[in-house]
Write a sequence for this structure.
């Protein structure tokens, strides 16, 4: 499966390089696009769950690295939940 890394800029301008085990992430997020924090979380949860299930379909087990990535994203997002109008920008895919 082709791995995709996507880069995220958080509301505080910090950046994170994130992992997806599948190109399906491109169906949910677009480089250069900003998303309200809540919408970003919905999209990334669904995308990484779908990607993990694609791995399960091919190899017979879920992708723990995708689930770990989601946990990291959720942890970082918690820091910004109280911020009104918080936006997350997907800066690039590689």
């Amino acid at each position: 499966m082709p791995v995709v890394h996507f880069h995220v800029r958080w509301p505080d301008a910090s950046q994170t390089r994130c992992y997806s085990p599948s190109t399906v992430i491109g169906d949910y997020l677009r480089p250069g696009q900003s998303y309200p924090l809540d919408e970003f979380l919905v999209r990334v949860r669904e995308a990484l769950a779908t990607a993990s299930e694609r791995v399960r379909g091919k190899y017979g087990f879920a992708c723990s690295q995708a689930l770990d990535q989601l946990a990291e994203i959720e942890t970082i997002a918690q820091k910004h939940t109280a911020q009104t109008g918080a936006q997350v920008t997907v800066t690039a895919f590689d």
